[in-house]
């Protein structure tokens, strides 16, 4: 049986992606395919020899790499570890996939851009990462492009979903603990639901798409606006939100002020356009609050 391997399958995106791939068994892509999810228990992509042999022995038809060191501030302090997982890790996966003729999909980030453009970034725009996380993810993209002619790179941003710590869970937790929250109001991006992203990843694979694609939910907002929407949709309007600057937060990693991704290429390729971020958020909150 042909296999699709998801690496990073226990992470926030990985869990939803495996579910979306498994539940789409009726369509042509995954019909007759076995979906296999690996995480750190099964593979450490930072280790070259074992990564190569694990992938070669499995002989998957496709490998989707969503494993990463995703603590953006942690990456500033642990540069070597960030490079080992995000950059070298992607190279090792590409080497293993190449050895058995598998296709590779890599999840990358808006943080490859410096945020100075002031209008949505195209796939063809020149990256210029401001922080270590962005640098290591960009290096991962470059390794993949060096090793494989046939690659799919999907850049996304501001993810939230049921299976990981994220901005939505953090705002809800803080709102249960205190009456006043402070949220950054000078960074603009597109909040993106992991289920919607997983469906777009599936669509791109189904279209046998190659190259770089930007995938996010539609339209952009600041973290402050996103935070207010989370509270409003959760009927927690009593909690006050004060807008603050990124500078006042004093975080280790510099973030781009404007890293909105243009997703027209996804629409042209697949006919698909992800819904407005507030619609996705409403559905997500409805789901987690009903449990
Ligand atoms: N979250 C976002 O807002 C965002 C935005 C843009 C792009 N992305 C990209 O989207 C992808 C998924 O992100 P996510 O938020 O779902 O990440 P996540 O929840 O942190 O999941 C990543 C998974 O990879 C695993 N992992 C870490 N190091 C590994 C290694 N050396 N070998 C194998 N597995 C390893 C992690 O295990 P541990 O948890 O045990 O370390 C975790 O299960 C990543 O490529 C990320 O760069 C995310």
Can you summarize this structure?
The protein is of the alpha/beta class.
SSE layout and pairing:
Elements: E1 2-7, H1 12-23, E2 33-38, H2 48-58, E3 62-65, H3 72-77, H4 79-99, E4 103-109, H5 132-147, E5 151-156, E6 159-160, H6 167-177, E7 180-184, E8 188-189, E9 192-193, H7 194-206, E10 211-214, E11 221-222, H8 223-233, E12 240-244, H9 246-249, H10 264-270, H11 277-289
Parallel strand pairs: 1-2, 1-3, 3-4, 4-5, 5-10, 6-9, 7-12
Antiparallel strand pairs: 8-11
Helix pairs in contact: 1-7, 2-4, 4-5, 8-11
Bound molecules: NADP nicotinamide-adenine-dinucleotide phosphate.
NADP nicotinamide-adenine-dinucleotide phosphate (NAP) binds at residues 7-8, 10-14, 39-40, 43-46, 66-70, 85, 89, 107, 109, 137, 156-159, 164.
Describe this structure in words.
By secondary structure, this protein is of the alpha/beta class. The chain has eleven helices and twelve strands. It has helices at 12-23, 48-58, 72-77, 79-99, 132-147, 167-177, 194-206, 223-233, 246-249, 264-270, 277-289, and strands spanning 2-7, 33-38, 62-65, 103-109, 151-156, 159-160, 180-184, 188-189, 192-193, 211-214, 221-222, 240-244. The strands form four sheets. A six-stranded parallel sheet has the order 2-1-3-4-5-10, with helices on both faces. Strands 6-9 form a two-stranded parallel ribbon. Strand 1, helix 1 (12-23) and strand 2 (33-38) form a beta-alpha-beta unit. Helix 8 crosses helix 11. The longest helix has 21 residues, at 79-99. The protein is globular. Bound molecules: NADP nicotinamide-adenine-dinucleotide phosphate. The site of NADP nicotinamide-adenine-dinucleotide phosphate has 28 residues, from helix 1, helix 4 and strand 4.
């Amino acid at each position: 049986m042909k296999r699709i391997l998801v690496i990073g399958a226990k992470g926030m995106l990985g869990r939803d992606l495996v579910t979306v791939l498994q539940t789409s068994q009726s369509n042509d892509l995954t019909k007759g395919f076995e979906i296999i999810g690996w995480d750190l228990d099964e593979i450490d992509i930072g280790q070259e020899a074992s990564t190569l042999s694990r992938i070669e022995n499995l002989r998957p038809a496709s490998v989707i790499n969503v494993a990463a060191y995703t603590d953006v501030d942690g990456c500033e302090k642990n540069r070597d570890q960030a490079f080992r997982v995000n950059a070298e890790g992607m190279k090792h996966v590409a080497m293993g996939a190449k050895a058995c003729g598998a296709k590779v999909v890599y999840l990358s980030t808006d943080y490859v851009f410096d945020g100075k453009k002031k209008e949505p970034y195209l796939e063809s725009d020149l990256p210029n990462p401001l922080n270590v996380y962005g640098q290591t993810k960009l290096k991962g993209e470059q390794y993949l492009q060096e090793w494989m002619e046939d690659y799919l790179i999907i850049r996304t941003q501001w993810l939230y979903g049921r299976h990981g710590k994220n901005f939505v869970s953090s705002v809800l937790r803080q709102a249960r603990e205190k009456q006043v929250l402070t949220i950054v109001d000078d960074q603009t991006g597109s909040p993106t639901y992991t289920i919607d992203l997983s469906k777009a990843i599936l669509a791109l694979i189904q279209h046998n798409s190659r190259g770089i694609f930007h995938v996010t939910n539609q339209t952009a907002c600041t973290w402050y606006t996103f935070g207010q929407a989370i509270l409003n949709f959760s009927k927690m309007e009593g909690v006050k939100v004060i807008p603050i600057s990124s500078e006042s937060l004093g975080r280790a990693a510099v973030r781009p002020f404007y890293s909105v991704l243009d997703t027209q290429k996804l629409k042209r390729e697949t006919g698909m356009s992800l819904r407005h971020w507030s619609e996705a958020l409403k559905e997500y909150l409805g789901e987690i609050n009903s449990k």
